[in-house]
Amino acid sequence: MEFSKSNIISFFLIFMILLFAVTAFVVDGRDALSGLGAVQHNPARLINDFFEIGGIGGALLNAAASGLVALVLIYVCGVSFSGPTFAAVFTIMGFGLFGKTPLNILPIILGVYLSARLVGKGLRDYLIIALFGTALGPLISVIALESGLPLWLGITAGVVSGTAAGFILPSLAVAMLHMHQGYSLYNMGLTCGFLGLFAASLLKAAGLPFDKALAWHEGGSTFLPLLIPLVSLLLIGTGIIHSGKKAISDFVNIQKHPGRLPSDFVDMEGTGGALVNAGVIGLAGSAIVYFTGSDFSGPVIGGLMTIMGFATFGTNLRNSWSVVLGVIVCALLFSMKLSDPGVILAIIFCTTLGPLAGQFGYLTGFLAGFLHLVMVSQTGSWQGGMNLYNNGFAGGLTASIFIAVIQWYRNNKSDM
Q1: Helix crossing, 271-292 with 341-349: angle to 10°?
Q2: Residue partners of 321: CB distance under 8 A and separation at least 6
Q3: Is 390 exposed, middle or buried (0-12, 13-18, 19+ CB in 10 A)?
Q4: 286: left (phi over 0), alpha (psi -120 to 50) or beta
Q5: Quick one: CA dihedral 58, 138, 91, 346, positive or negative?
Q6: Cβ neighbours of residue 152 closer than 8 Å, sequence gap 6 or more
Q7: What pLDDT is attached to residue 2?
Q8: Closest CA to 147 of 67, 86, 74, 202
Q9: Domain boundaries, the chain
Q10: Which of 175, 243, 298, 384 is a good FRET partner for 98, with 20 to 30 A between their CA atoms?
Q11: How many whole angstroms separate alpha carbon 347 and alpha carbon 369?
Q12: What is the rounded CA–CA span in Å between residue 32 and residue 39?
């Protein structure tokens, strides 16, 4: 039986959701259900590792449930399975380990749907914005659980606020894309960070303290370090089985693309090559985590899943390595430990700036990575940890300044 690109991607995503759900019960048994409940009652601001909040089983079950919501919406809306949808589901599942829950993502999606209806369109037209816009899920959780309001009133206010935020996202996403012109892959990170600034300012004015949140799993589990390498090998194997030798040649061709948004590697080069690229990125990311001595925590595994997802939608080895090197050099120069939570997450997520290196060269990528770490260490506090894509926020700002300078120089240098 021959599978289309859409079928093979959808089947793999279904497999991932089942893998996470089954593993949750294998690891924690019925305690996974109580862990899932504990996760739903967490405000979920950065950084709240759900492995620490609800146990490994509860976190995996939450990730599976969040991914299922995204998958069902893709099917219902009739959106084809390709690079963007693969990236969206992997990202939602990844952040289901440290911030997103089925309950706090639905109001955002509802808001985007209402915005689409206002202009005579359907959710299908803005589904990718809706799925990535769930980065603002903590806004709902914070208002519901940390505002000091009675629970029923807090939940109501949280849902209304989340729906309002989702309603604004489509128009704001277009404006933010113009700022960096597609040279930051996590455009919704910049969009949600910008909106999060206003939300956090309002809540701070109302007296919400926004105490720093840091729950980080440091357990010595032998299973967690193997999870992403296992999924990566499955991706590589699936890609080769689907496309044969062509998967390898397509993978090589993917390295030639700068990755500027929108770069759907599934459509541009082929499903097999895109899946192999995702697997290779997962193995490379896991190797970096291992050699830095970092914990395979919920945020780290979630970050690795995100860059694997975007390996079908803009990220490749060629456009990423110099950006990663820039972050590492910056950390060492300023005496930061590479295994610290903020640093290792920046090393993983800085690949959002890969298109800069892909288009303008490795030196630009290195400098962008260097500046990215400086920025990301500040931007989280600006928006109170309510935008889960904090690296996307910092990356979007970093890309914007580089693009502004590069284009000004190109447009104004004299012809000689």
Answers
A1: 160
A2: 362, 365
A3: buried
A4: alpha
A5: negative
A6: none
A7: 45
A8: 202
A9: 5-205
A10: 175
A11: 9
A12: 10
Does the bond joining 262 to the residue before it have cis omega, within 30 degrees of 0? yes
Q: Where are the beta strands (DSSP E) in 116-255?
A: none
The C-alpha atoms of residue 400 and residue 411 are separated, in whole angstroms, by: 16
pLDDT of residue 381: 86
- 356 is written with which tokens? 């800069």
For the stretch 205-257, pLDDT in tens is 888 777 777 889 987 678 899 999 999 999 999 999 999 999 999 999 999 99
CA atoms within 13 A on the CB side of 11: 14
- Residue 194 phi/psi, 5-degree rounding, is -60, -45
Task: Return the SS3 of 4.
Answer: coil
Q: How many CB atoms lie within 10 A of CB 38?
A: 16
- The token duo for 171 is 């128009």
User: Radius of gyration of the chain from Cα atoms?
Assistant: 20
Measured between alpha carbons, how far is 234 from 12 in angstroms, rounded to an integer? 9
The pLDDT assigned to 218 comes to: 87
Return d(Cα 317, Cα 324) in angstroms, integer: 10
What six digits make up the tokens of 64?
Answer: 């599976």
Q: CA-to-CA distance for 400 and 184, rounded, in angstroms?
A: 8
Distance of CA 390 to the CA centre of its chain: 10
3-state secondary structure of 320: helix
399 CB-near residues (< 8 Å, 6+ apart): 180, 183, 184, 352, 353, 355, 356, 368
How far is the C-alpha of 50 from the C-alpha of 44, rounded, in Å? 8
Around 301, how many Cα atoms within 13 Å sit in the side-chain half-sphere? 29
Instruction: Return the SS3 of 184.
Output: coil
Q: How far apart are CA 90 and CA 97, in angstroms?
A: 11
Q: What is the pTM of this model?
A: 0.95
The Cα-based distances of 285 to 100, 242, 276, 351 in angstroms read 22, 24, 14, 10
The closest of 225, 215, 188, 28 to 92, measured between CA atoms, is 188
pLDDT score, position 411 = 84
Average pLDDT (38-63) is: 94
